């Protein structure tokens, strides 16, 4: 197992924050958050989601950062360093597996963003109406060749960045892409909330109806929080293994959490006003973003086709880039593990990950078309992987990480990591330990039991 004190680091603190934020901000915020919100009834779901971010997400993120930076190893290797010879390394293995599974189906949706970028560039949506967009999505996602082709293209792009390494590949791409994405999202929020009939969408997003809250809403919100923050699978602990000694872990976690949450809420502010405005149902599921967005461009800039063109091209490019900084981070989790623990060269490790993930991804891509009838527990292959990872593996990983930090890890290590060996003040340390020891494991456990109908 290769763990060492002088392995590569991110070049700057801001680079580290942006790389972690780049991992967190992705399709989870712009594609998944709106449709999960839509499926679970709107504002009440968002409130529970926010609670999960603050009480579970941020503390567990700090724990992952501590584990990664202290061990300076990939997620499975980290437990070999911090708890040698114990079953804790299973948490690392589960994380690597979760990263692998998520990457395989996530890259299918990432591939869709490339198709939409292509359509935007070639003006393929010109003159279509709301029904046309829905039809287009259904036909495209069911087409075995196109969706597999774009998924493969996306995988190959991810592979290239991973080969370029941590500083030049991961850090640099995040530094350029993240600010651009932010600005464009703000422009689109303004466009969307000023559409005729947008108020119904805003009410759906902002006025909670607690009568709709049930066990599924809790599990959905918790799963979304973990997924969106890239938590529970050791992704951020892998990134933290490249953090410098002077990176302030709690501040970095707060920045990542705030950026991630803002992007998700703004994505909701783009999608729902527009969806209500053109009559797209908020519970349309994974297609929601892709059938709603073309309408936003059409309706907001329809009178000035040039603007509609420019904005839609820019948005899809940035959506693809947001997905890209996330797929890079998932690939890195698995590649770092295969390279360091299985002793393959980094290049070979990256190749294996890319090839096997692509093969698995094909099944997810086809599950919107030719394999739509192949069901596992009543779910398509794509939905099954999404449910298994986000609603089971990530929260379970988060629960074990908090138990590990609260009960197993030497308190001194946690203190050193949070305070940068005593040089930072951390007045909330006791509260933090309480959350790790009791609150997080119990809350996650109760949400699981609640879903199973036991509690
Ligand atoms: N957080 C990413 C998103 O919201 O799109 C998805 C993700 C990235 C999940 C990396 C897990 C991960 F390790």
Overview of the structural elements:
The protein contains 18 helices and 2 strands. The protein has 455 residues and is mainly α. α2 (27-39) runs antiparallel to α10 (215-228) and α10 crosses α16. The radius of gyration is 21 Å and the shape is globular. Bound molecules: 4-fluoro-L-phenylalanine (PFF). 4-fluoro-L-phenylalanine binds next to α1, α2, α5, α10 and α14.
The number of helices is 18
Shape: globular
User: What is the CA-based Rg, rounded?
Assistant: 21 Å
Termini separation: 42 Å
What is the residue-mean pLDDT, rounded to a whole number? 91
- Give the strand tally: 2
Query: Uncertain runs with pLDDT below 50, 5 residues or more?
Result: none
Largest sheet: number of strands, sense, barrel closure:
2 strands, antiparallel
Distinct ligands? 4-fluoro-L-phenylalanine
Helical residues, percent? over 70%
Order of helices and strands: HHHHHHHHHHHHHHHEEHHH
Structural class by secondary-structure content = mainly alpha
Strand order of the largest sheet: 1-2
Strand content: under 5%
């Amino acid at each position: 197992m290769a763990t060492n004190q002088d392995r590569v680091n991110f070049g700057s603190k801001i680079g580290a924050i942006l790389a972690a934020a780049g991992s967190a901000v992705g399709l989870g915020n712009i594609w998944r958050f709106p449709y999960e919100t839509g499926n679970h009834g709107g504002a009440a779901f968002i409130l529970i989601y926010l609670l999960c971010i603050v009480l579970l997400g941020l503390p567990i993120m700090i724990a992952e950062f501590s584990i990664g930076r202290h061990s300076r190893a990939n997620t499975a290797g980290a437990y070999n360093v911090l708890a040698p010879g114990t079953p804790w390394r299973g948490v690392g293995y589960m994380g690597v597996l979760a990263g692998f599974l998520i990457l395989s189906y996530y890259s299918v949706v990432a591939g869709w963003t490339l198709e939409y970028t292509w359509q935007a560039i070639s003006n393929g949506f010109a003159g279509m109406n709301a029904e046309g967009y829905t039809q287009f999505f259904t036909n495209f996602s069911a087409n075995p060749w196109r969706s597999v082709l774009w998924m493969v293209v996306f995988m190959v792009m991810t592979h290239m960045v991973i080969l370029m390494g941590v500083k030049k590949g991961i850090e640099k791409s995040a530094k350029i892409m993240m600010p651009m994405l932010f600005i464009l999202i703000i422009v689109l929020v303004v466009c969307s909330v000023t559409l005729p009939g947008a108020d119904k969408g805003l009410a759906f997003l902002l006025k909670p109806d607690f009568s709709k809250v049930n066990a599924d809403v809790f599990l959905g919100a918790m799963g979304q929080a973990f997924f969106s923050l890239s938590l529970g699978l050791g992704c951020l602990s892998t990134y933290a293994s490249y953090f410098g000694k002077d990176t302030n872990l709690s501040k970095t976690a707060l920045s990542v959490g705030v950026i991630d949450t803002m992007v998700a809420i703004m994505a909701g502010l783009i999608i729902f006003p527009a969806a209500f405005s053109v009559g797209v149902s908020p519970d349309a599921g994974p297609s929601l973003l892709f059938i709603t967005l073309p309408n936003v461009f059409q309706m907001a800039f329809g009178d000035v086709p040039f603007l509609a063109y420019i904005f839609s091209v820019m948005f899809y490019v940035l959506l693809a880039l947001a997905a890209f900084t996330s797929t890079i981070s998932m690939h890195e989790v698995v590649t770092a593990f295969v390279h360091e623990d299985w002793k393959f060269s980094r290049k070979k490790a990256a190749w294996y990950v890319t090839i096997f993930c692509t093969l698995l991804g094909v099944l997810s891509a086809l599950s919107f078309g030719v394999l739509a009838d192949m069901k596992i527990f009543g779910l398509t292959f794509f939905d099954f992987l999404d449910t298994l990872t986000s609603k089971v593996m990530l929260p379970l990983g988060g629960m074990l990480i908090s138990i590990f930090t609260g009960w197993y890890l030497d308190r001194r290590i946690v203190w050193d990591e949070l305070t940068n060996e005593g040089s930072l003040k951390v007045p909330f340390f006791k509260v933090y330990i309480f959350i790790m020891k009791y609150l997080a494991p119990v809350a996650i456990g109760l949400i699981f039991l609640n879903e199973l109908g036991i509690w």
